[in-house]
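hey
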C-alpha cells in the first residue's frame, strides 16, 4: 500500500512525533501480520479486504472494525462553473490527490448541458489534469498497484458503457476520469444512481444559482451522501455520519463512572 499509509505516517511524524514513534509497521515484505495481537482495526481497502481482515481477527476485535471500503467519488459540472476561474484546477487536484486511490477522489465527471456548452467545461478539466499530473507523483510506486488500478479502470469502463455508450475518458498518468454527458438535470439522478453502492462524495462546479438545486437532486434522489466544492473532496466534516465520526463508532468504548 503506497498511498494512504505513506501520507498517514508522514502526517504523524510532522505533527505528533511521539505518537509516530510508537507505531509498529508489520506485514511489510510479505511477513505475517499478527492479527491475534489486535483489539480493534481500521481497514482501508476493498469490501473484500475488510471482510478478510474481520475473519482473521479475534471475535472481540472483529466487532471493533472501522472499515473504509469500495467507494467512488464523482464530480458534476454545469455551465456557470467558470464564474470561479480556478474551479478546474481545484477539481484536478481532487481527482489526483492520493493518486486517485482515495474513496473521495472523483472517478466520474458528469457534464451537464448541451454539447456546445459542455465541451469547453470538459476541455478545461482535461488541460488542468495534464498540468497537475506532475504535482501528484508519489514516491515508491508499486507496479502491482498500478496494474490493480488498471483492472479497476476496466471495470469502471464497463459500467460507463452501460451509463452512456458514447462516454469518454480523461487520463493523467494512471488516473482515469470517465466522462458522462447529461443533457438535462432531469436525467442527472437516473445516470448517477446507476453507480449503486459505489456512490459517496460529489464535487459540484456550477453557477451559484444552480448549486443548491443540483445538490438537492444528488442528495435526495441518488446514493450520494456528501456534497462539496472543487478543492474540498478530501476535507470532509468530521461529523459526516457516513464516513466521518459514524465510521469510527465501533472503535469508541463506553465510559463508566461519575459524570459519564
Amino acid at each position: 500500500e503506497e498511498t494512504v499509509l505513506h501520507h498517514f505516517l508522514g502526517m504523524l511524524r510532522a505533527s505528533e512525533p511521539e505518537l509516530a514513534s510508537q507505531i509498529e509497521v508489520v506485514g511489510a515484505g510479505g511477513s505475517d501480520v499478527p492479527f491475534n495481537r489486535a483489539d480493534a482495526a481500521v481497514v482501508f481497502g476493498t469490501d473484500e479486504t475488510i471482510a478478510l481482515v474481520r475473519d482473521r481477527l479475534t471475535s472481540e476485535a472483529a466487532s471493533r472494525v472501522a472499515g473504509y471500503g469500495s467507494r467512488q467519488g464523482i464530480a458534476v459540472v454545469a455551465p456557470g462553473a467558470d464564474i470561479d476561474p480556478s474551479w478546474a484546477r481545484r477539481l484536478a487536484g481532487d481527482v489526483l490527490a492520493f493518486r486517485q486511490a482515495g474513496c473521495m477522489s472523483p472517478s466520474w465527471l458528469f457534464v451537464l448541458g448541451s454539447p456546445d456548452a459542455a465541451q469547453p467545461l470538459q476541455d478545461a478539466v482535461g488541460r488542468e489534469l495534464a498540468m497537475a499530473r506532475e504535482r501528484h507523483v508519489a514516491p515508491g510506486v508499486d507496479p502491482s498497484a498500478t496494474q490493480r488500478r488498471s483492472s479497476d479502470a476496466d471495470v469502471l469502463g464497463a459500467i460507463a458503457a452501460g451509463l452512456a455508450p458514447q462516454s469518454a475518458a480523461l487520463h493523467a498518468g494512471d488516473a482515469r476520469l470517465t466522462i458522462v454527458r447529461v443533457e438535462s438535470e432531469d436525467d442527472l439522478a437516473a445516470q448517477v444512481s446507476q453507480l449503486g453502492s459505489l456512490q459517496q462524495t460529489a464535487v459540484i462546479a456550477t453557477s451559484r444559482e444552480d448549486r443548491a438545486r443540483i445538490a438537492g437532486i444528488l442528495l435526495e434522489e441518488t446514493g450520494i451522501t456528501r456534497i462539496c466544492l472543487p478543492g474540498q473532496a478530501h476535507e470532509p466534516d468530521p461529523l459526516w455520519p457516513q464516513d466521518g465520526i459514524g465510521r469510527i463508532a465501533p472503535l469508541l468504548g463506553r465510559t463508566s463512572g461519575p459524570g459519564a
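The radius of gyration is 20 Å. Residues 138-153, 254-260 have pLDDT under 50 and may be disordered.
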